[in-house]
Every structure is written in structure tokens, then in C-alpha cells.
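Structural prep section.
Before we set up the soaks we want a predicted structure of the protein with 7MF in place, mainly to decide which crystallisation condition to try first. Input record follows.
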Amino acid sequence: MYRDTPHPIHLEDYRPPEFLIDRVDLRFELDPDRTRVDASLQLRRNPAATRGDGTLRLDGEQLELEAVSIDGHSLLPSEYRVDPDSLTIYRVPDRFRLDTRVRIHPNLNTALEGLYQSGQMLCTQCEAEGFRRITYFLDRPDVMARYRTTLIADRGRFPVLLSNGNRVEEHQLDDGRYRVVWEDPFPKPSYLFALIAGDLSLLEDRFITASGRDIALQIYVEPHNLDKCDHAMLALKKAMLWDEEHYGREYDLDIYMIVAVSHFNMGAMENKGLNVFNDKFVLARPDTATDDDFLGIEGVIAHEYFHNWTGNRITCRDWFQLSLKEGFTVYRDQEFSADVGSRGVKRVSDVRLLRAHQFPEDGGPMAHPVRPDSYIEINNFYTATVYNKGAELVRMQATLLGPELFRKATDLYFMRHDGQAVTTDDFVLCMEETSGRDLTRFRRWYSQAGTPRLEVEGEHDATRGTYSLRIRQQIDPTPGQREKLPLHLPFALGLLDAQGADLPLRLEGEPDERVPGTRILELTDWETRFCFVDVPERPVPSLLRGFSAPVSLHFGFSDEDLMFLMRHDSDGFSRWDAAQTLMQRVLLGMVGDPDKEVPTRFIEAFRGALSDTATDKALLAEVLTLPSESYLGDQMDVVDVEGIHRARTGLKRHIGLQLGDELVQVYCENRDAGVYRLTPEAIGRRALKNLALSYLMSAQQAEGLALCRDQFADAENMTDTMAALRLLVDHGGDEAHHALDAFYRRWSNEPLVVDKWFSVQATSSREGTLGAVLGLMHHPDFSLRNPNRVRSLIGAFCSGNPARFHAADGSGYRFLADRVLELDPLNPQIAARLLKGLIRWRRYDEGRQTLMRGEIARVLEANDLSSDAFEVASKALDDLGRQARPSA
Ligand code: 7MF
Ligand code: ZN
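Run finished without errors. Recording the C-alpha cells verbatim:
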């Protein structure tokens, strides 16, 4: 049981800081066992704050305070107080220097927040509130200071010492150690501080900016990984150029450093001038990384680089504004990836992710607005809502303004707020002022949780030649928010004629300009009607093209309409979406009635799509991929775990059997001989080929198995190796064992590949998977202290294997809760993330509900539970959590 129930922090309680810090001078004597940190802070009263009583309260956790003085005078014990999370000094002057000395223990830091040891390296992670584990500070993003950092260490052990900004000094010391000094000229919040010490190799390159400045680009990795950095470097240069071309943003320091570390709680971190990355988002070679890994690296490198303007130069006033930097930066990295890769495929994968993670979150007990009103632990709010729904809000504003005005508005934002800590509302104000539009109803997207449901009805009047649409919005209550207001959103649509071509769209009363294509309507009310004229024949509407708003759409399409859209829609995203809706219908039909036959015309539509040569292959692979088991579950009133698994396996098998010849043909046509290339075209060929192979393997015929075995034996790239391995493991028996053994023997020295080896076993659909996972926890390579390893085995099982995780006997739930209880004392962030796998218990049948709730309650009763896990568990059991069902 949590002793003192942690208190939530509320947005409405925000007050400007009473003190500001102009300069920070840090001095580290680095030692993994015992690091000494001397901090010298220049403080002054904030003229913009209401005057307090002269008490200064600094954040600080797990620090051993050794000395504290003001303007050179040591404080008496009566002049200050030390608490577990703070240092309070009772009377301070209006302007003064504060010096503190603390000890910290990087090698005991398993939470990976603050300064910690990763392998032989020392590194930091300060976002959101990790800096307070390094020194006493005003650890909040609206306190921005200039930093000078001195690092002292043993040169043999730590030949590389890095921190933010420019390296200004290096000295050999008398005691054999050496000292390096870094200075960052840009004021920054403490969460952007970083330091690195280690024995690292360097890949170096340069970038000349638009204004002619020469920037040194450096990627630091452990020496044996130096051959896996080329892709990351290329991605960085592409991102730098893209930001100049699309936003007019140039890099501002003379050096840009990236460091790859193997123990990291998240993807990466945008520390000023010194990005720290989870090594899985840096290291790649064609034989060790899949196409998805390569694309992921490109996206994450770009994301962290883009933060330099959206996050660092302009930062968040407080953590409720997290989406100010994250939503905008995700939007920017999405658009970058769309531009350098395949736009339609990128949109499909972004929407897939939104529907798979954000919609369920928005319908569950931890639903929160993009700008939350309260939190207990901010680390629990780095969510799909803040990141991905936040990106959709920026996208909608870009759509509403159009490209020219949106660029003008972002120019204004960068100019007006450079060097400031601001709010999401400041961002919207720039959009509003630039466009002269009223975004009052749009702002509600930031403060209102829940996925709006759009009910659309269309009516064709043949005699008048009109097509009218009635669109209604509806938003279910979410925890703490019963009443909802209508939202302003862009609704993109087209109307297809009988040949599948876009009709010109003219609303009643508009002049006759016959431009066919997509039109953006705007909704601002609960109900809106539109009437299009000059529509002689019944059209097929293509609604919400490009997914123009993050809503669930409901329209009474016939199966024929969906097949028509899937073939003809001019919008790639909408072709994919029509196919998904159709497959979902077929699958849910099979769930409801196990004896139901697969409609012949569905198989014919699938056959037609397989031979479609007009669509790019990567998009075609997406079109032909069945909706996931968890997504199908989200569409049901009560998730039928076994029924969904049975239906999906059955349909895959049916497709494999019915379309065997076509699938073999597609497989063979797309087999690449020769060098591995990472072009969108080559990626598409591999995706389509491996999809064909998976259907062939589902048919359980000798031919598919032979192709799969050969592919596993001969593949020279990890994309093809993993595709084959996954299928062989699902096939089971000796095939699986031999492949897994061979794979492990080949790759046991590459931790990121060993992660794949763990994951592929954890996500096997075979019955004995939980037993295998329990066994793998004893494998010598398994460790609870490495988040990538935890995610690869435990995370993969709990969130990537619904059929086994949701076993009716509750064994999967018990497994999850046991792991949460083991992990929580070591790494609360990772534990709390894992625990989120249980919170949507209301979506399941009564038996599972009882089992899931029981496990959450067991977690909640643990001694010394972290505030992270406490928040998740208590909100999951809160009666205010509503019966939630996200819809497509
Ligand atoms: C692309 O946002 C998209 C999202 C916080 C850590 C990276 O730059 C970040 C950090 C979390 C979750 C997702 C991402 C990040 C974090 C991320 C990375 C790349 N400021 Br937590
Ligand atoms: Zn980010």
C-alpha cells in the first residue's frame, strides 16, 4: 500500500517561479560509485512573480548534501532544511550566489533517471524531472539558465567527456585525472542538461547551413558499433536540410553530438547540442536491422533534431504544455518522413498507430486531454494522446490554414517566442492571428479528452441532381469530464463517379468552378449539413480523406462501396481505410458466427488487389494486411479473445489456400537479387513479398514452408531473416527450434538482434508461449535492468500477443503483475508503462475482468509502490473510469 497517497498537481495551480537562475556552474568529479557534484547558481527574485516571504525551495532527490553556502558564507543548520525531495533555505537575499556540494551514486541508479551507469559509460536523462537527482535546483522548464559544466575523470576509463554546447577547455590534472569544460551559450531549462563519460568511438561529418556556417556532426558509440552509424548520420543531414527548406530553421551551435547508449528508458532525448539515444535508434546495418528499424532511426533522429527549435529554443512553460513541443515535433517528423519516403504509406502507419494506441487510451480510465489538467507523475503522461493526438491537432491547424498561412504562422511563432517557455495556447494564438480566423472551438481539442464519433448520412436526389450530407459529432464522457462541447475540425472528402473518378464539388449557391478533387469542409457544431449540386448519378463518397481529423467515422457503406473505394479512390490512405473496414467486417462476421463462410467477392477483391500494379507496393502491402487482433477487439462491445484469434487465423489460412498461385507469383516477382537498397521501392517489394509469404505459411502447405526455409537460410538482410524466422517460430516444432538456435548462434554478440530473438518468441501465437517466456527470463542474456530487454520479452508478450496474454485462466495477467512488482523498485517508469497493459479491464468478459482487477489490486497493495505505478493502478480501479469502447 502506498503510505502517503501522492497528491496530484493541477494546471490551474501554475504560478511563475519566485526566483530565476541566470547562470549555472556545475563541476562533476565523476566516479560510478560516488560522484561529487558542485553547483554554483546565480539566483535573483523574479520581477514577474508575486512576492513571497523570502524562502527558497529547491528540488532535490536522492542527494547527499555535503555543503551549502550563500555568497560564500556557509549556512548554519538553522538556516535551511533538507527533506527527501527538497532543500529549503529560509531567508535569501534578492540576488545571490548559491553553492552546494552533493554526492550521488550512478552505479546504484537503476531507475535510469539523473546520472547513471550504462555498461562502462556514465550518462544522464533529465526529462522530465531527473535533474533534481543530480543537484538541488529549480527543476521546472520555465527556469532557463546558461550552463558551464566542468567534468573531471580518469582519462583511461573515460577518454571522452561530453556536455551541452561548446568545449572550451581541457587540462591534465596533477592526480592523473583530467578536466574538460563545456559551455552552452543558449539559456535552457534543466531538463535539457546532459553529460556523457565513456570510452567511445566517433563518426564525424559536417553540414554547411543555408547561411554558410560549418557544423561538426558527431556520433559517439561503443567502438564495436562504429560500423552501424552511417544511416543515422545520413538521416541527420537530411533532417537538417529539410528543416531549413520547410521551416527556415537553421542549426545554432557549431557542433551537434549524438551518443548511443544501451540502457535507456525511452527512444531518445533532445538535450541541447548533445542528443542521447537509445542505441536501437542509432545502430543499423542491413544484416542487423530491418527496414522498419531503418525507418524508425530516420524518424527518431529527425524528431530529436527538430526539437532544437520546437522544444529547446522555444520550450514549455510547465509540463501540462508537453504537447507544445511533442505534438509539434511529431508532426514535423511525420512530414519529414513523408517527404523523404512514401507519403501514403507514412500516413497509413501513423493512423494505424493512432488507432492502435491513442484511441484506446482516449476511451480508457487514463483518458486525458492533449493538455492534461492534472497528473500525479508526469512520466505517466508521455502518452500517445500528448504525442500523436497532439501531432494531429497541429496537422488540423495546418490543414485549416493551408500551406502558405501555416508557414507564416510558424514563422511568427519562432520569432515571437524564441528563448521563451510558452503554452499550447500561445501556439494557437499565432495560428489565429496569422489567419485572422476564430479558433475558439478548435482550442477545445487541447482541453477536451475523448475521440469524437462522426455519424455521416448521405442522400442522393436524382431529380434535383444533388447529394446531401448530414454529419453529426458525438463525444462520450471521459473520467472527470462528463460534459463535452462540439469541436472545430477539417473534414476532407471527395465524391466518386461510376468510373471511380473524382467529381467536381460545388456546394449549393457557389459559383460553377468545375475543379474535381478533394474538398475540405469544416465542422464546428454538433450537426452540419452540406448539399452538393450537379451530381446527376449516385456517387460513392470518400470521407475523411487522409484522415483529416482524429475521429471515428461511421457511414453506411455497402461492401460494394468499400471494394469500389479500395480500387478507385484517388487518396491512398482512403483506399487502405476502405480495405481495412471491409476486412474488419468479414472478420467480425466470422467472430459472431464461426461457421460463416468467407464471401467469394471478398476473395475476388483480394485477388484483384494482389495483381494491382498501379499502387506502390508498400501501400499495397498495407492494404492487404488484416487488422490486428487488438484492433478488432476494440471494435467489439466485449472483446472475444478466442473468437478473434480463431477468425483471424482462419481468414489468413483461407486466403493462403484460395490464392496460393497468385501469392507464389507475387512472392517470386518481388524477390530481390543483388544488393540491398533502402529506397521506398525496394522496401515496398520486401514488404509485399514477406506478406505473401505469411499468407502462404498460413495455408500450411509444403510449398510455403519450403520457400520460408530457403528464405531463412539465404537471406542477407534482417528484414527477410526476421520475416522468415517469425513464420517458422509460429509454425513450431523442429523448424522453430533449429531456426531459433541458428539465429542465436549467429547473433549472440549483437544485443539489439538478441532483443529480436526474445521478441519473436514472446509473440508466437503457439499455446506454450507463456511457458517459453518464463523460461527465457532465466536465460543468461535476460536482465530486468535493461529496458530494451524488458520490452523485448515482457513488453512484447503483454502487448504484442493478445491471444496468449489474455488467456482465460489469468496466467498472462498474473505474469504481468509479478513483473510489475519486481520492476517497480528498480525502474518505476518501466513498471508503470507495463502496468498500463491491465487497465482496460472493462473491455473484457466478467471472468477476465475479475482476474485483471485482482492483479491491479495486488499491485496497489505492494509496499513502497512508486507514485508512477500508484497512479496507473489507482486510476484503473477508480469507479469514475467509464465503460469505454473506442470505435474506428
Ligand atoms: C519520435 O520526445 C517520437 C517520439 C522524451 C522521450 C523522445 O524526444 C522525446 C523526448 C518518449 C516517448 C516517445 C519519444 C520520446 C520520449 C519519441 C521519440 C521519437 N523528449 Br517518453
Ligand atoms: Zn520529442
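Observations: The pocket of zinc ion (ligand 2) is lined by residues 303, 307, 326, 329 (CB under 6 Å).
Flagged for discussion at group meeting.
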